[in-house]
Amino acid sequence: MAAAGSTEELKAKAQQLQQTVFADSASDAESVKQKEEAVGQLSDTYVMLQDAKALTQLLSQLRPFFGVIPKAKTAKIVRNIIDQIAKIPNSTDIQVAVCKEQVDWAIAEKRTFLRQRIQLRLASLYLATADYQEALKIVGGLLTEVKKLDDKLLLVDIHLLESRVHHALRNQPKSRASLTAARTAANAIYVPISLQAEIDTQSGILHAEERDYKTAYSYFFEAFEQFSALDDTQAVAVLKYMLLCKVMLNEAGDVPAIISSKAGLKYVGQDVDAMRAVAKAYHDRSLKEFQGVLDSYKAQLVDDAIIHTHLTALYGTLLEQNLVRLIEPFSRVEVSHVASLIDLPLATVEQKLSQMILDKKFAGTLDQGAGCLEVFAEPPAAGMYGDAISIMDTLASVVDTLWTRSQHVVAAV
Hints:
Elements: H1 4-22, H2 29-48, H3 52-61, H4 63-66, H5 71-86, H6 92-109, H7 112-128, H8 132-149, H9 152-168, H10 172-187, H11 193-209, H12 213-229, H13 234-248, H14 255-259, H15 262-265, H16 270-283, H17 287-296, H18 298-301, H19 305-327, E1 332-334, H20 335-342, H21 346-358, E2 364-367, E3 372-375, H22 384-412
Antiparallel strand pairs: 1-3, 2-3
């Protein structure tokens, strides 16, 4: 937020730029160019003032100006101003309202290309606000329309967004199908580096969902290099996903080396520190430390849905490993004692032990009356089935040999 003194200066600058944009009605090439530059500076000034309302009004005030400039430039200015509104914190609702208003205006003015792009932006905002059905409704309409126009680049963006929405709805088959469609459309045209990086990121996310972390890491690595080359802020998130894959692959020891590399040092901060702490806690097999990391870096880990999903699974795995190690020396042990050893609530430990018994992670039973866990010795593997298979193999060999000899006898006769 700007200081009081600088705020007055910015407001004075904004008034001056407004005069440049609106005072002169000239429409020659030089005047139009000056107005375009002034509009860009004015929107930057409003962002510094954190004034989303003024940016919204600016779009409405510029409509007469849009009538005298090419449609392509109009589309660029409108999308840039919407992007500027997005830079202001807690402005999602305003962005949705602005997008709806601009869609209506674009329909009235018959500006199809601009309307499609703004509708796509509106669908992405619905995704961000978890209004998935509205997002799918817009995406479905756009797909039908854009396929007829054969706009491959826009089609890639739509399919990619559709894949993200289905992923958010936990519909992996449809998410993968949409991503495949995006890749197919992208192969037919030149795709900007940033868009290719987004496709690779989504591919990595879907492979990680299937627990194929090795392939996911390779996609995240490609996306990270591309975002890093563009100095895109998304590079930090992708770096986090790379480090997550290393942890999930049980290669937490590689995390410090990646962070201290030339590319990693560029993005050192809270996000990277959070993943470093996760890797250390996992390497130490410390549940208490792991939980402490989740509490300390809530914004970086828990609030990121993708990271949180995998860390939840990782925490469950770590808890199982610790419980198995603790109960190994016992044949009968109080659950409260196990809970005190692992330093977790009794209810949590009891629930996890019950789940592990049902999943056959170990043989045992919970005596809830006595509050004890009884651990049974693993029954010896029955050798009968192996012996039966061996006998069948031998018989098959004998039959084959007899058949071969009978063929020789028949041939001799």
